[in-house]
């Protein structure tokens, strides 16, 4: 959400999203960026966000304000900084500056990074970018800026970004970071949103950015585990508990060996199900 | 520090506060407040404003505030912003 | 004397929820003869013929809402006669009735009885201009008090969208059609003299008010402005926070187990209340639930739900929108009801007693769940119970929906400025930052906590959450003169409203 709007900031913790991105970049006009920065800083310091992850999108390295953004924001312990138009060089410079701030102010927690790949260069060099920093926990595909960069039309069907989506999902998985899909810009079209989200999910995205709170429930419905997924997950965890109590290190269900990643995935599903209320 | 240059920050939207900071020929801090919650929080808003000016080291200014129900953190942020704009 | 809610009040203090006795209403006065020469064509000269006296009580209904011309037109002529100290018993008063302020100032009007007052008249009363204490009643009690002669009306002026020369009145026809005339029924049967004021003389086949009640019919050019019928509050909210509150509310309603075939429902006209209706609409269509009826002030959204089969019937005491006016004409399942049928406390079969759910708003709600919809937190009159206290009493679940904090003002306070509805009749508060259920429903609270993810907390917790955001507000002690009384549906006094200090 735009960082310069106090009424919106106030509602951030209660809209139902898993993560909230306070924007200091594109949705804030040039002559208000200084005010927005201070407002977001004070909001993060004062408001209680509960379990919602707090992320701030700073201005790009090519701009004037990014250093001041970090100087104000990093010390109030946001969960992550989101870097627009990210590439290896930018991420490295930003991380260096963050480190300076953390040392100077003796901060007790290291802030994470989220990168937005939204240029052709960013897409093609995504592997180098992901490799350059261990703070990166998530990649967001920015299709609006990307299609502008390519000089092509952005459509609802999204065929033009199939390659970019696949590339981002693959690279994210390779480096064990989360892949977040680009926002669906028609806020009135819920059916289209669901289709778009399903498609992204099928390619390996496990999150989607939204640009209006009314999109949150529809997106959750797509990513929420189904009842059968939940049932299988419970079965796996129960077997695991049984195996442990009989002193067995490994076990199988229906003839399939169940190893650690499978157990972790089952646990994630059960946690998510509890969180969304499908399981009590 | 004395405010020499006028500056403003914030808006008249709900939950926000419009801040205008001006030099004061009397060389002291003068706060003029209009608020939609004057009865309930007028005193509190003045306190926060004064505290923010003190923290920024401001000793002389006229501070015009038009409040639309902003919470304390918004008031602080907007006043800080106006001060910085005035000083730069 | 301190009443059961701890407020110091004059008159009969509220003693808590008492068992209700059935009472015998007085015999209806001898009915007027059926004459054909009741019609007058000039309001000014007609009023000159009325036996007006000081201290009379004149009554009006508010079905034309903020588009009403009649009360202003009539009172302008009445004032010319020079009578003083009149009591106006109007079911509601709106900003359009601003001309009454000068009549208050010149003491033509010295007392007002109403269920809802907003605009310049409300300000005038709050500022102490009305000589006598104003009585703010519920919709139900207005009917009860007229029928039991507690309020004795000398002349009832009934704005009649369509009226026959004999005096048969209906609200369904005419250029100023307003649908139903529910709040005028008691006036028509019990006032000493009844004057119909109409702009549409026509034969009326199915009168809401029959000619035998009516003494005179006055034809004027226009009785009101149809655009004024839309009250301005009947749009579903688009605010994402309001929509979340509505979703939570629907989830809660489902979890109570009462949202099943045959359920009954009423909702206010506020943005969030309507959003709840929309959620219930979708839920019912999805799960094939058919409600028995929806009631109260009818908006176009409720008409849609009737037409979609979500409800079998609508019971309408006032039309909030022109779609409702149209529906009442066409749809035999859209019924008109009088204020007495709606909410007279002495009728155990009234509509409010049959309600499963009612969705209501609040300016303030306190730690005992008492609700204020009469004054703002500055003590200024901006409304009144209307049907609030009636429906809260009758409904199995009275659910208050509101944002917790709006422009730094918290809806939860430690003590409401004015009690409109006692906490003992309020069941749930749903906000964007948590849900509070009245402690008398402990079993339900335990059940919901165990089986749902609804954010159920104590109301004290919501209060603390609000204070954490806003800071602690200054409280002003108001010791001004009593200008109005908040009267409950059994006639007892819940609270007093004092003159506000207009010095800045």
Description:
The complex is a heterotrimer of chains A (280), B (88) and C (504). Chain A has 280 residues and is an alpha/beta fold. Chain A has 2 domains: 6-223, TIM Barrel (Alpha-Beta Barrel); 227-276, no CATH class. Chain A has 12 helices and 9 strands. In chain A, helix 3 links the parallel strand 2 (53-57) and strand 3. The two termini of chain A are 32 Å apart. The model of chain A has no long low-confidence stretch (mean pLDDT 92). With 88 residues, chain B is α+β, with helices and mostly antiparallel strands. Chain B is 39% helix and 26% strand. Chain B has a 4-stranded mixed sheet with strand order 1-2-4-3, with helices on one face. Chain C has 504 residues and is α/β, with parallel strands linked by helices. Chain C has 2 domains: 39-229, Glutaconate Coenzyme A-transferase, CATH 3.40.1080.10; 240-476, Glutaconate Coenzyme A-transferase (3-Layer(aba) Sandwich). Chain C has helices at residues 43-48, 70-80, 100-105, 120-126, 139-147, 185-190, 240-255, 271-287, 300-307, 322-330, 339-343, 388-394, 442-451, 459-470; strands spanning 39-40, 57-60, 86-90, 109-114, 134-136, 155-160, 162-163, 169-170, 193-198, 216-219, 264-267, 291-298, 311-319, 334-336, 357-360, 364-366, 371-372, 397-401, 405-406, 409-410, 412-413, 428-431, 434-437, 456-457, 482-487, 493-498. Chain C has a 10-stranded mixed sheet with strand order 1-10-9-6-2-3-4-5-25-26. In chain C, strands 14-13-12-11-15-18-22-23-24 form a 9-stranded mixed sheet. Chain C has a 3-stranded mixed sheet with strand order 17-16-21. In chain C, strand 11 (264-267), helix 8 and strand 12 (291-298) form a beta-alpha-beta unit. The two termini of chain C are 32 Å apart. Classes of the chains: A alpha/beta (280), B alpha+beta (88), C alpha/beta (504). At the A-B interface, helix 1 and helix 2 of A face helix 2 of B.
What's a quick, concise take on this entry?
The complex is a heterotrimer of chains A (280), B (88) and C (504). Chain B is an alpha+beta fold and 88 residues long. Chain B has one domain: Ribosomal Protein S5, domain 2, CATH 3.30.230.10.
